[in-house]
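Hey everyone, long-time lurker, first post.

I ran two proteins through the pipeline my lab uses and got sequence/structure pairs for each. Pasting them in order. The first:
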Amino acid sequence: MAAKIIIVEDNESVRSIVRMALELGQYEVIEAGDGKAGLQRLEEHPDCALVITDLVMPVMDGFELLRRIRDEKGKSDLPVFVLSAEKEATDALRHGATGVIRKPFSPIELLEVIRGALEPKS
């Protein structure tokens, strides 16, 4: 069964690029347009293997989403990667992000990072 990945990104174009790359990698993709919707998707899909989130979004930003995921019982070890071109990426790592995928990124680069996080180390 394909690993489920939740993408939380308000920019529809970026979300579409991430979705297409992940689908090429045979992952099941669930989308959300802001942090609040991302939390809802996480509740709907507790078997989610990884979250990819933007930082700057309306309604609930990526920092608040990250904080809530890390505070949630049973989700503190869930890999959360931040999509960012912003200097806030360093702050995201300090707040518990697993890693940063810097914009602009290539689909191949994105897949390599995600595979590295999800596939068992040999």
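...and the second, right after it:
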Amino acid sequence: MRLFRAGVVLVLCASLLNGCGFTLRGTEQAAMPIDELAISYPGGRYPLAEVLRDALIANGVTVPAVPGDALELRLSPERLERRALTLNNRGGAGQYALTLQIDASVFLSGQLLDGPETVEVTGSFYEDTANISGSNNGVEQTLNDMRQDMADFIIRRLREITL
């Protein structure tokens, strides 16, 4: 019974501390120093731009369709490297490592403010030669996860920009 009471008191104390706004250092995210940021990227399909746009909007940043006088994030074409990590029993690659890279720069009224910085993320996936469509879905899911990680990194870097 005593142990139960101690547990209840501990939970209540933790709830009170959390309720009054107490957080441990490093666990609270800093506010974005920018209100508006345009994203420029090479023509055609660019999945990272969609993920990044969603992340910026979730952080309270307006993303205009046309740069104008707003801050502008310029992204280079994605570079994808794929290399074999392990071999399967048929002598083909069983597991692959993927490396996705872009160069990112921040401009203000056409003038370089920050960058260019190369952003790189890695991931891996298993290829099942008996299920090619499943393997292709695995590659796409891995790339989607990598793009989300890349967008999160870019958001963290944008928080560090001083205007």
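Reply from user beta_strand_b:
Welcome! Quick read of the second one: The mean pLDDT is 81. Residues 50 and 60 are 16 Å apart (CA to CA).
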